[in-house]
Design a protein that fits this description.
about 400 residues; Aspartate Aminotransferase, domain 1; Aspartate Aminotransferase, domain 2; 2 domains
Length: about 400
């Protein structure tokens, strides 16, 4: 039996053949260190990095590609946006659906004198922009909001919050780990000042890639959290103060960036609307099928147009970890049980401490795989119902 991989919210798989081809080409034909030497292979490596920066800027509506900073993942990007920006006495706003990549840095800054407001969301994980507006104070420095929850898939009203932030003179940072490449993003239209993204999910790049978009002028306000060699201004022992170098200390993951660039070009060639349409259909099939199974509890808004492909559920009286193990061992279906590194979100939807079982199809998933998964969960739920009936009798 073939594997059904429904853990794309963690890491997309399989990757487009273009991603692997670009990495193999880099390994076989380039191999040099970008920006660290003057020979032809180093120059070619630098070109690969530059072209990837350019294609990412195109995807996100960024006018100046040098405002795309490469990091190893969205977590590092968010740490730059939080640790590098906030100071004691500042006030930061976030939501009750955030990943620990936002919550842990904010809690750490809270211990250093930053005030943090966590805006409650509905049990479906939805955020009211008016609540954000009401939470802004004189010392509010920044708003940090996930674009879509990695637990329920619920898509947040980012454009509306961006407008509020712009009107209030507050910096707006969006965690796009779950949406970059899956949902159209335009930083200008959405009034986004900082956009954190990862490469290994819907951008179809490899692990160890990601980045941060930094709006004009903000580099003067965000201190690098790591300093060192950048390949530029090497005669000075002070960190460069210009983008992207000031946040890109150390040798970049150039082979990974080559793969990331190919993944993003694949998205542009396919059309992000085409990708969204297919994933929306698969999500709708999955939601409809799970809704018909007795004993299954689905979390979130349960609307494929208002969420990503992330679908979280539980089977009554069943541990999500046990169900995930059965799906893996008996049906070859890969899923993600537990808290998904987002205890705040599980507190919101009422699933602490056990969490949920998360299914996340991707662009390369099929309708047949969705149906086979529904059938497998139906089988598991019926087994559990039978055990409950035996206990009663």
């Amino acid at each position: 039996m073939d594997i059904i991989y429904f853990d794309n919210a963690a890491t997309s798989w399989p990757k487009p053949k273009e991603t692997l081809a670009a990495m193999n080409y880099y390994n076989d034909m380039i191999g040099g260190s970008p920006g660290r030497s003057g020979h032809r292979l180093s120059i070619e490596a630098g070109r690969v990095v530059l072209e990837t920066r350019e294609v990412i800027a195109e995807l996100f509506g960024v006018r100046d590609m040098l405002r795309i900073v490469f990091t190893k993942n969205a977590t590092e990007a968010l740490s730059i946006a939080i640790f590098g920006l906030l100071k004691p006495g500042d006030h930061a706003i976030t939501s009750g659906m955030e990943h620990n990549s936002v919550m842990r840095p904010l809690r750490a800054m809270e211990e250093q004198g930053v005030e943090v407001t966590v805006i409650p969301c509905s049990p479906a994980g939805e955020l009211d922009p008016a609540d954000v507006d009401r939470s802004v104070k004189a010392n509010t420095r920044a708003i940090y909001i996930t674009h879509a929850s990695n637990v329920t898939g619920t898509i947040m009203p980012v454009a509306e919050i961006g407008t509020i932030a712009r009107e209030q003179g507050v910096i707006f940072c969006v965690d796009a780990a779950q949406t970059a490449g899956a949902i159209p993003i335009d930083v200008e239209d959405m009034a986004i000042d900082l956009l954190a993204f990862t490469g290994h999910k819907s951008l179809f790049g490899p692990q160890g890639t990601g980045g941060l978009y930094v709006a004009g002028g903000l580099e003067k306000e965000i201190t690098p959290i790591m300093m060192g060699g950048t390949g530029s201004r090497s005669e000075f022992e002070k960190q460069p103060d210009f983008l992207p170098d000031m946040y890109e200390s150390g040798t970049l993951n150039a082979i990974g960036i080559a793969g990331l660039g190919a993944g993003v070009r694949f998205i542009i060639d396919e059309g992000i609307d085409t990708i969204r349409d297919k994933e929306e259909r698969l999500t709708g099939m999955l939601l409809e099928g799970l809704s018909a199974i007795s004993g299954v509890i689905i979390y979130g808004c349960r609307n494929s147009k208002k969420q990503t492909t992330v679908v979280s559920f539980n089977i009554k009286d069943q541990s999500p970890a046990d169900v995930a193990l059965m799906l893996d061992e008996e049906f070859n279906i890969m899923s993600r049980p537990g808290l998904q590194c987002a205890p705040a979100a599980h507190r919101t939807i009422g699933t602490l401490p056990v969490g949920t079982l998360r299914l996340s199809p991707g662009y390369f998933s099929t309708g047949d795989e969705v149906q086979n998964t529904i059938d497998a969960i139906t089988d598991i739920a019926q087994q559990q119902k039978g055990r409950r009936n035996e206990r009663r009798s």
